[in-house]
Specification:
Strand order of the largest sheet: 1-2-3
Mean pLDDT: 84
Distance between the termini: 35 Å
Largest sheet: 3 strands, antiparallel
Helix content: 55-70%
Number of helices: 10
Shape: globular
Radius of gyration: 19 Å
Low-confidence stretches: 9-16, 200-204
Strand content: 5-15%
């Protein structure tokens, strides 16, 4: 299922939809730039090629990504802990990261992505739903909301996986923050129409209300928490979505932000 722009625009007295969603566009640009400069894109010669690049990517994510065990302990994993943890990539043992600040990695991890599809999927949803939410709450509040919700989702995942094998795995990606944007959009505009590409008969473009599209998406994430294997932190999506929806409940009823 892919999404096109929702059929909803915020208007006031028949005027324009409001100021350009500068924060949303800036977040998309920063995420893209960080990815292109990092080892996952495979475009930066500083990280080498082949197996050398793969190992560089693992060290890069270990340094800047969020690790649940580190967040709860407030310090980087020791060499002994890393030796006991399963290697994400064969032949690339994880190395200690002295000087790493776990609390900061919660934020830096929001701007890392594991591959082109990971990046494109997240930024597609941010591009579709971010502008409407940003115009509804204002630029500054949207940026704080995005970062806070992403951090909350990461810490929530860390607490839930404190005693599991995933506690030493690196958590990267903007999924928690973007899931919060989806939750907020659902609360603000549950009946707005969203164009959805359904994989039936050559991907028919159909329009459904947001409550149906996002509700099904949330149900799928919830189901995946209990049924999917390792690799995707679906619980981060669930926590972020709930955080965004609850935050939007505190905003509903307030007047729309005036353009500019």
């Amino acid at each position: 299922m892919a999404l096109a722009a929702p059929g909803h625009t915020d208007t006031r007295d028949g005027g324009p939809a409001g100021p350009a969603p500068a924060v949303t566009y800036a977040l998309i640009a920063v995420n893209t730039l960080v990815f292109l400069l990092g080892p996952a894109a495979g475009l930066n010669p500083l990280y080498g090629t082949g197996q050398a690049r793969v190992c560089s990517e693992q060290r890069y994510e270990q340094r800047w990504g969020a690790v649940p065990a580190e967040l709860l302990a407030g310090r980087p994993l020791t060499a002994e802990q890393l030796a006991e943890a399963p290697d994400p990539v064969p032949g690339c043992p994880a190395a200690p990261t002295p000087g790493k600040r776990p609390a900061v990695s919660v934020l830096t991890g929001l701007f890392l992505h594991a591959g082109w599809l990971h990046l494109a999927g997240n930024l597609l949803f941010l591009h579709v739903f971010g502008p409407t939410v940003e115009r509804r709450v204002g630029r500054a509040r949207f940026l704080l909301f995005y970062l806070a919700a992403g951090s909350l989702a990461t810490y929530g995942f860390a607490l839930a996986e404190a005693h599991s094998a995933d506690s030493t795995r690196v958590l990267i990606g903007a999924s928690g923050a973007i899931s919060a944007v989806l939750g907020a959009y659902l609360r603000f505009h549950p009946r707005s129409r969203v164009t959805t590409l359904v994989p039936l008969l050559l991907f028919l473009p159909l329009r459904f209300p947001a409550w149906l599209v996002l509700g099904l998406w949330f149900a799928l994430q919830w189901w995946s928490v209990h049924s999917a294997g390792p690799g995707v932190a679906y619980l981060v999506h669930v926590i972020g979505f709930c955080a965004g929806f609850l935050y939007a409940c505190t905003v509903v009823g307030h007047p729309l932000r005036r353009p500019g």
